[in-house]
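Worked example 4.2. Below are the chains of a multi-component assembly; read each line carefully before continuing.
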Amino acid sequence: MPELLEVEIYRRLADSVVGATVQGVAAHDHWYLKGTTSARLLQRELVGATVVGTHRIGKLLLLSFGERPVLGLRFGMTGRLIVRGTAAIDYLEYSSARDEPAWDRFVLRFADGTDLRMRDPRRLGGVELNPSTDHLGPDALTVTPSQLRMALLGAAAPLKACLLDQRRLAGVGNLLADETLWRAALDPARRGGSLTLAEHRRLHRHLRITLPELLDRGGSHMGDLHHARVRGGRCPRDGVELLRRTIGGRTTYSCPRHQH
DNA sequence: CTCGACTCCTGTTAGC
DNA sequence: TGCTAACAGGAGTCGA
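Applying the procedure described above to all three chains together yields the following structure tokens:
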């Protein structure tokens, strides 16, 4: 489940191809090309182009090529980034432990002999030229208190569903949502718009602490709650059995004792 | 407009 | 042992 932390790790790896010039594009999986993007278009726009920078908005990784179109990479839940045969992340929660070259859905080959590939067993990711970013909310790693307040203002949806909604806040996925709400002692089922000012502050503080901390530890699955996110798991803080529910369409674990 | 339900994808795993 | 069905979740669509 690449969430924004994994994608940020991918972005740092992708930074190592800045300055490289594209010699070839392998995009044989038509399903993986989104919007109006086609293999032919990718060839025409990217071959001969030089990578000048990398960016990340939420879970979307962007490669810029100067005057050429921007290349957007989405990793879905099982997509990994591999540069020069080296994966940014060896282990990916919910993905496969195996490494099958057949799962390479998209490859950029560079003139210097290096390459960048997206390896995605379940094909939930995708590649798109000039992807729209209009619908993305503020990035969760840098969100301000007022931006977070606006993201939840008047929301009737459950708090967790709001955090997962990329239009409200970009980058948070299922594991980060559970971890942050657990740390902030907030019930994921609460209406998003029901938070008090003090609770807004608490949520913001825990977001801004938790994300960099887990980035340091190596990913979304390194949270304090994570090992307890199994059926019958107990709250690492209180020792009581965690609630397992579906909220926002996702499996949700929370502590019935300290999350309100 | 908002929200929830549904759908897509396929490797892994629990259970018979 | 071998099979089936449930499960995982990011993201888009659709209908109430």
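Take a moment to check your reading of the output against the notes. Chain A has a mean pLDDT of 94. Residues 1-3, 59, 74-78, 93-95, 122, 124-126, 164, 166, 173-175, 249-251 of chain A lie near DNA strand C (CB under 10 Å from a C1').
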